[in-house]
Design brief:
Elements lengths: L30 E5 L5 E7 L14 E7 L9 H13 L5 E8 L7 E5 L3 H9 L21 E5 L18 E5 L6 H9 L4 E4 L5 H7 L5 E7 L8 E2 L4 E2 L4 E7 L3 E10 L2 E11 L4 E2 L2 H14 L7 H11 L14 H7 L8 H41 L5 E7 L6 E5 L39 H6 L7 E4 L7 H8 L5 H12 L3 H13 L3 H8 L2 H4 L4 H13 L3 H14 L4 H18 L6 H20 L8 H18 L17 E9 L4 E8 L5 E2 L11 E2 L10 E5 L6 E11 L8 E11 L5 E9 L4 E9 L1
Parallel strand pairs: 1-15, 3-4, 3-6, 6-7, 7-8
Antiparallel strand pairs: 1-2, 2-12, 4-5, 9-11, 9-13, 10-12, 13-14, 16-17, 18-27, 19-23, 19-25, 20-21, 20-24, 22-23, 24-27, 25-26
Length: 775
Amino acid sequence: RDSYVASTKLTNATLNKDLQISLPKIEKQPVRVEQAPDGQYYFTIRDIPKPTSVAASSSPRSVAIYWDASLSRATANHELELQLLTGYLDTISNPVAVSLVVFRNVPEKTRTFLLPAHKGALLTALRAIKYDGGTQAGTIPKLKGRLDLALLFSDGLSTFGEEKPGPLGAPVYAVNSSKSSNHAFLRYLALRSGGAYINLNRTEVKSALASIGTNSFSFISAQAPGCNTCTIYPQVQVPIQGPFTVAGRLMTSVTQVVLNYGVGSRITHSRTFTINRSDAIKGNLLQRAWAQKKLDDLIIFPERNRDAISALGKEFSLVTPMTSLIVLEQLSQYVEHKIRPPASLPGMAAKYDAAMARLAKEKRQKEVSKLAHVLSLWQSRLTWYNTKFKRFYRVKKENKSSGQDSYGLGGGGRGAARISRSMSAPSPMRGRSRSMRMADPLSNRNVDEKSKEAGSAQPEASIKMEAWNPDTPYLKALKAARTGNRYTVYLSQRVKHGRAPAFYLDCADFFMKNKAKRLGLRILSNLAELELENPALLRVLAHRLNQIGELDLSILMFRKVLSLRPEEPQSYRDLGLVLERRADKHRSAASKKASAREDYSQALQLLAKVVMNKWQRFNEIEVIALTELNNIWPKAKAIGLTRLPVDKRLIKNLTMDVRIVMTWDADLTDMDLHVIEPSGEEAYYGHNRTEIGGLVTRDFTQGYGPEVYAIRRAMSGNYKIRTKYYGSSAAKLSGAVTLQVDVYTNYGRINQRRRSITLRLTKSKEEFLVGTIRF
């Protein structure tokens, strides 16, 4: 049956060697072509190129050492790495300049050592490195001037920010001794430059030394000149040690494929193969081979390619980091997971197609129903927005009993300091005598309503945020330390407290407040290293980056949160709002207007998903997101966007004097927003409409928020913002709930201001004064 059978039997054997299967020598076809069940044509080319002689490069005069000093590298086998480095440096006979670049979330200043004289100083500097911070491989710099060779010591885990560095201008020899590593990424960095990847967990130091400084023979590229759409993999360099295979998808009847080989990045020879559809047989082996080789390329950057990897795994039934094996037996299971039954089950496949068509029709009907629901919610919000609530004035008459000014409602006679909580119908202004006349708080200190809505020049409201000052032993130690010794104290405190996210948040805030932002950002970036796939930690980190103005980093973190939690509306909303902030920053610069348009466009699309999708636990979050979408739309329209992402009946910019937004990081957790208005009336979930027009949105008792307080026309005076931690049924990594409060004045106007604060609450029923707005 065109097969070979071999068998062996072992009794009481110790399996301490690799199993080897020797196949008889048979004639092999270099080119195979198949027509897959999907009608597409796939091919493989199996080649055995003759290696170009691999000669050792000349002794280098300039070497760079890129040393990953992030927190995840603290457990690497540094002594083994230094043993390899020392062995290599000993092989260099001529004087050499060694540039040391230590990098974490950002690279440190480059230091240069002249060898052999400064070899001891170099090794001492490497042994003195303190491992701290996240890894942003995208910031690894290309050094100026000539560079003969680069040694990269890293685990390849880029956790913070951009993960792909640019070309370094020399062959890179990537060295890894960590148990947890991104091997594909390190191999890619090395091979694209003509270097090599050295995994010290599997390679002896002596063998590794032999590969440093040599030019490896590799596959460089594949080209199909007559078929630009013929996608061929791999598309990265691969070292050649024996037979080599590429796989492609054939989009023409006949084409020629050229395989290029060489040393480093230099092509030394090529081989040409003819691919013809007429040679195809039916099957799906080559289709899967093509998909697997594409997966090998995508997995080099797993976060950037997360969606593509997942889609590829589902389409071709591959196990990937984003997909797993699943056994499907019934039609309902195929429909649930949206996986079409194979061609071997034609009857079930037809039923599947009918079921999916029915679901598509039901989806369209639900979208119509959803739009009607959102329109109803929006109309209710517009009714609130257009209501003229009772107006308050500061009465110019001393309260004899208290010595304080008293408040009164428009029209005389109702001078109570605290008003009733019942809703009252709007009342007209009457009977104000000249002696009682004062600035009307609803027109923002005698500015007429039209100019106020336009955001014209007027006195600014003030926002005072309460400082978060946790009583912790590590902060006490930092405060007691001398300025030059604080980082050392932080590292010593990390030994005991370093598993708690709160430790890094508190310490980062401390350093930033003490004019050490670079150190503060490094410490904050550790949150990305603690648990690589924890969306709660990443959400906290992204919010904090947003607060300190690191918008690019915040966006990258929020994108990661979205990839981990696409079922939660907050993931879309958070990302959309930071994209808006970046667009606001860039829209006035001509050179960045295009990127601002793209950011606005993405922000609108993300918020539209919140508005139009159905969310199990977060009813009425649609109105919050729609208010924010309407705040973005005029700015986006002003720089050229024309396409609305929602029904035009949902477009109305709700400008407000005050808007307060509270969110938190813990799922299944109930936090409450309370605002005490100047009248003394308290707005919260149990009393969500106040007599002067204050509104509090729906109470989210199971996590995240947002909860919002809003007032279109604010009464003059102080608005005290308080939060109450009601309780949680979720396990918390940090032992606390991290709270984010954003305070806006003149929301939606050209003079809009925003202030934010992060704080943590640890005890149920705990209350905290977040801040005060003086309007």
